[in-house]
Each structure stands twice: as structure tokens, then as C-alpha cells.
Amino acid sequence: MIKVGIIINAYRKQSEAVNTVLQKFIKSLEIDTIIYKTQGQRDAVNFAIECCVNKMDVIIAVGGDGTVNEIINGMMQAQTHLPKLAVIPNGTGNDFVRSMGLTCKLENLHEAILNNCYTQVDVGQIDYEDKKRYFINIGDVGFGGKVVEVLDKQRNYMGGKASYAMAILRSFIGYRRPVLQIVGENFHYEGVVLLAAFCNGSIFGDGIVINPFAKMNDGKLSITLFGKVSLMDYVKNLKALKQGKPINHPEASYFESSYLEIKIISGKAVTETDGEYLACGTLKVSLAPTKMDVLVY
Predict the structure, then answer these.
(1) Total domain count for the chain?
(2) Which CATH number belongs to the domain containing residue 251 in this structure?
(3) Same-domain status, 25 and 109
């Protein structure tokens, strides 16, 4: 019998379709199901660690990119048995499943787990202040991190896509680009940075294709660097970014690297990983030695 832990972000309302598939798992004769519901921050991390300790075969994340990120961090921190991962997207952006190109047809979920329909993907790792943080889709330093910082402050009184649009607008106002030193394989940059994204997947920010060249299983980080790119340039190119087109600008760079070191020279530079706020200074970014099995359905 397959042991499955379902971790639900209880702050997000479940649709009738989601509730139907959850009931199917509960009643299944082939799958032994335990359901966990989060009540606060880090609950998903702790539930994922518990699933690893109890040697669950699969963890199903029911939520958005933040929920997936917490579960990934719990699984990687457990340093024990590593379950496979499935996602029922129920967030604002659901950018991870977009980057994966998953259709996520809920009626196929049960059979996909029984038929072992998985693909391996890389997992990003950030080392900072003697700590580790993991991401499965995209992290960035600069403007994207600022948006997440503002978004977190809005959560108590505004949600959904309107909140994201408002956070972007508020972040534009008065934003000052930091000066960063960025070092990778055969790459060195020091100067003003609007945004530096280190990508496993290609899509973040509710559908923005920040790196159209990224592949989630190629063993490399895909880097997007917007240096002296003005906020107005960024706005002008938002349509192209939504369409998956690289920005044609002398200060826009795309490259690959197995690692990245980012140091703040001056100003404030906020980091985010999979839409989760991470306030820190010097970063070392790489790919974790462990890959993740993700359900394709």
C-alpha cells in the first residue's frame, strides 16, 4: 500500500473538485492517507519533516508556491527518507506547476500515483549565515524580493491577484536599486542591479517568464540579470516577459552557472525564494546534490 501525506494550506478555500479528490484518497483501498492542515507559518515545514520521519511514499501539497516551498524545505531539512512530491495547485500564482508544464487534471491524480508517473527535477540551495534554504522554482535578489516583502505586509487585509498587482505598484514607488557583486562560472558583475534571478524553473511573479531558457532537470542554474534596467524599461517589457520572450536590452543578461555568489556592496537588497521572503545579505546559490521526484499528471 502506498503511504501518502496530504499537506493542506488551510488558509486557502478548497474547491469542490479538490474536496472530491481528497475524499477519493481517504476512501482508497490502494493508498493509506494522512491529512495535515496548516494553521500558521512553518506548519508545512514541520508536517513535511514528520512525513519523512514516518517514511511516507508521497507528499501531496495542496496550496500555492509558498506551501510547496515550505514542504520542499521540510523534506530537505529532514535528511532522512525522501518522499516523492505531488502538487494540487491552489494558490495565487501557482508558478511552479506552470514552470513544470503540468496540466494538473485532478481526476488523473489518483491513477498517476498508482502508476508511478514521476519525473526528476533539480532543487536549488541557498547558503547564508551558516543556514540553508531550498527552492524548487526561482529565487531572486532585488525588485522581485521587494515585491514579496510588500506582499507579505498586505496579507492581513488583501489577498488574491489584486494583492499581487498592488504589491508590484507599491514596490515601484520609491524603489532604489542596490549595488551588488555577482560572481558565477566565467561571469563577474559589480554594479547597479534591478533584479538578479537564479532559476530552476522559468516562471515567477504570477506568470512572468523571467528566464525562457531555464530547464528544471538540466543540472544547471539559469541566471537572469537586469543591471541598469530602469523600472520603466521593465514595465514596457512586461508583455514580452509574459509571452516568454527575453528582454532585448544592453543591461539584460542571461547565462548558466553551477553556482552563484551575491554580495551587497551598497543599498538594500531583499531576497525571495518561490515567493517566500528571505531577508539576508551575502548568498551562495547552487543546486542541492539531491533531486526531487515530482508527479506528472
Answers:
(1) 2
(2) 2.60.200.40
(3) yes
Residue 294: beta bridge partners? Answer: 85, 119
How far apart, in whole angstroms, are the C-alpha atoms of residue 178 and residue 30?
Answer: 54
CA nearest to 76, candidates 39, 51, 41: 51
Domain range for 189: 133-288
Q: In what order do the strands lie in the sheet with 58-63?
A: 31-37, 2-8, 58-63, 84-89, 292-295, 118-121
pLDDT category of residue 206 using cuts at 50, 70 and 90? confident
Q: Are 295 and 86 in contact (CB under 8 A)?
A: yes
Please indicate, yes or no, whether residues 162 and 103 belong to a single structural domain of this protein.
no
User: CB burial class (10 A; 0-12, 13-18, 19+) of residue 27?
Assistant: exposed
Q: State pLDDT tens for residues 13-47.
A: 999 999 999 999 999 999 999 999 999 889 999 99
In the predicted model, is pLDDT for residue 128 greater than 90? yes
Is residue 278 predicted with pLDDT exceeding 90? Answer: no
